[in-house]
Amino acid sequence: MTPSAIAAPAPALPAEWQDYVRLLKPRVVSLVVFTGAAGLAVAPGHLHPVLAITAILCIAVAAGAAGCLNMWWERDIDALMRRTAKRPIPAGRVTPGEALSLGIVLSVGSVMVMGLATNLVAAALLAVSIAFYVLVYTMWLKRRTAQNIVIGGAAGAFPPLIGWAAVTGQIGMLPVLMFAAIFLWTPPHFWSLALFACKDYARAGVPMLPVVAGCAAARRQIFLYTLLLAAASVLPWALGEAGAVYGVAAVVLGAGFVVQGWRVLRDRQDEAGVSLTDDGPAKAAFRYSLTYLAVLFTALVIDRLVG
Fold first, then answer.
1. CA 305 centroid distance within chain
2. Which residue of 9, 166, 182, 191 has the fewest CB atoms within a 10 Å radius of its CB?
3. pLDDT of residue 280
4. Is the domain defined by 16-170 classed in CATH 3.40.50.620?
């Protein structure tokens, strides 16, 4: 059932400002902002601090807008999942129309300001990232294929390209390698989440890999992508785009992620999925994945500063 076929729920409670903030998925935005700021920080050249802050704010607002439009479109399945049932729209505190309007205004505004503050390349990349997340991932892939995360993961990999382009007006090798790292990081990150949220996704009819192919297949894919990520994360060092500080961090962090992936692979959870409160290897890998990306890109910025 598509959102257009769903009657808008009457607001159960008046919306508070916090509800509109929740529509923007602030935790997701924080990671997007960090990777975008990392791309901006390692780019050659100079951008006035005011313009740099404006560019980062544009990335944050665009990510929030995409999250808002995602919640608008997925309000039917959000209502069926324990993990998302209390979000503002399914809980009836914000109407779908309000969420749609907010998402569109923020999307258009962030792209326009980015273009005015930096350059058209950065603005175009920002627009593509919003469109990819909303149109390709949310509306097309997520309910149709178990590869939704693999293909849709490109949406979350754009920020380093955008940050770099805001400074240089073009795309370079290093931000492409950062894009690749986030792209390969996304499947083990989200499939680890899907393993311990398997019942929720099944209840909502979302064809996440553990639901469609089973937990064993998902564990194998998590380990495979972890190996690919560990190898790809070393490429900036191997290709001379980063120095030893980053290289050592990439090797150590990659080895840790491979260990986490191996533990997930060897785990024998019930094929029907486990509860959200389970603290097994899948949840441990999910938590490690968050730390991994943050520390990896921090090491890249430090490497550039000291180098």
1. 26
2. 9
3. 82
4. no
Listed by start position, the domains of the chain span 16-170, 172-307
| Averaged pLDDT, 54-62 | 97
pLDDT-above-70 percentage for the chain: 92
* Beta-carbon contacts of residue 197 (< 8 Å; ≥ 6 apart): 81, 83, 273, 276
Q: Above 50 in pLDDT, residue 11? A: no
Tens of pLDDT, residues 78-106: 998 888 888 999 989 999 999 999 999 99
From 2.40.160, 3.40.50, 1.10.150, 1.20.120, which CATH number describes the 172-307 domain?
1.20.120
51: pLDDT strictly greater than 60: yes
Place of tokens 């992508």: 225
> Can you tell me the distance from the alpha carbon of 52 to that of 118, in angstroms, rounded to the nearest whole number?
8
* b/e burial code for range 212-246 (CB count within 10 A of at least 16 → b): eeebeebbbbbbebbbbbbebbbbbbeeebbbebb
**How many other C-beta atoms lie within 10 A of the C-beta of residue 49?**
8
At how many degrees (to 10) do helices 281-306 and 173-196 cross?
Answer: 160
**Residue 11 DSSP code:** P
Which residues, in sequence order, are CB contacts of 255 under 8 Å at separation 6+?
230
Q: What percent of the chain has pLDDT over 90?
A: 69
| Alpha helical stretches, state H, the chain | 17-23, 26-42, 49-73, 75-78, 96-117, 120-131, 148-156, 159-168, 173-196, 198-204, 209-213, 215-233, 235-238, 244-266, 281-306
- Determine if the pTM surpasses 0.85: yes
